[in-house]
Amino acid sequence: MRFPTLALYILLSVKALSVFAAEPITLATGEYPPYNSVTFQHYGLMPKIITEAFATVGYQVNFVFLPWSKAYYLSKIGNVDGTAQWFNSEERKIDHIYSHPILSEKVVWFYLREYQFDWKTLDDLTGIRICALRGFTYTHEFHRAIRAGNLHVSFVNYIDQCFKMILAGRTDITLENIEVAYYKLRSLFKPELVSQFVYHQKPFQVSYNHLLISKKTLDAQKIINDFNRGLKQLKTSGKINQILKNSRMGLYEPKQ
């Protein structure tokens, strides 16, 4: 009977494939809560999504937290397999292969629920008190409107100050990434105060983040192709939406 021998061969082949597929991918990233943080469960929202996407196609992932510039550099020279997450850039494409977009990062207007606010263009913001951050990359049109005296803007160093100014009635609206804003609000205020803040559905800015695999990594294109397949499965199954929901509820954040 040859069946036992054949069965043993198949079993050993499957085990060998499993070991090969489980070879970890090492990715460098940096602190950007709630997207990424060494103190968060699963290292935050983005590592959770990346890990789940890779897991569906048979990969394990290790994350290394570094200053952002160093994380990118180590990926560029091939000391790690890749880095996450980054916006589109022709310069970065020289040394990396980009994944499909993972999430859209939306910057929106936040304000108090009781405040009657709507906007379609910057002209609609005339007469509204705006709190903005020094050093933040706003649009050219926004800065032109400020220079022209069409917008009333108070610049501060930290988004925490904007949210406190809104609650105190010293300003009306502020701009922030949705996920970052809710993380900051939860860290600043009790739930009953957080619930007073809402955001406008029309985004001020939308950018898409990506996983980057270094071109120096062996089988870089295959890794990206496999990741894209896993990412598509996550999106189709609704798991990404659930991960986002969990993040906005603060479920990945350190316990106080």
TrEMBL record:
Extent of the signal sequence: 1-21
Membrane-spanning residues: none
Gene3D superfamilies: Periplasmic binding protein-like II
Keyword Signal part of the UniProt annotation: yes
InterPro entries, A to Z: Solute-binding_3/MltF_N
Keywords carried by this UniProt record: Signal
Domain Solute-binding protein family 3/N-terminal: 29-245
Family stated for the protein in its record: Belongs to the bacterial solute-binding protein 3 family.
Protein name as annotated: Transporter substrate-binding domain-containing protein
Organism: Spartinivicinus marinus
